[in-house]
Design a protein that fits this description.
single chain, about 60 residues, mainly alpha, Arc Repressor Mutant, subunit A, about 50% helix
């Protein structure tokens, strides 16, 4: 699924940082370090990134 626009707990807009996070992790950086570089320090916001699973490519073929 797609990442929510805002953090469920505090309301911080997390979706603005998701593409940068995804690109940095794909290059081989550790997720925790990337979140530190993006200055995302609250644990509620960090869990939004660390718990995100992209399944849109798996679900899309079943769309009617």
């Amino acid at each position: 699924m797609m990442i929510p626009i805002r953090c469920f707990s505090c309301g911080f807009p997390v979706s603005a940082f998701y593409e940068d996070y995804k690109q940095a992790v794909a290059k081989g950086k550790k997720p925790g370090k990337v979140l530190d570089e993006l200055k995302i320090g609250r644990y509620c916001c960090r869990r939004m990134f660390l718990g995100q699973v992209d399944v849109i490519d798996e679900i899309a073929p079943f769309k009617k």
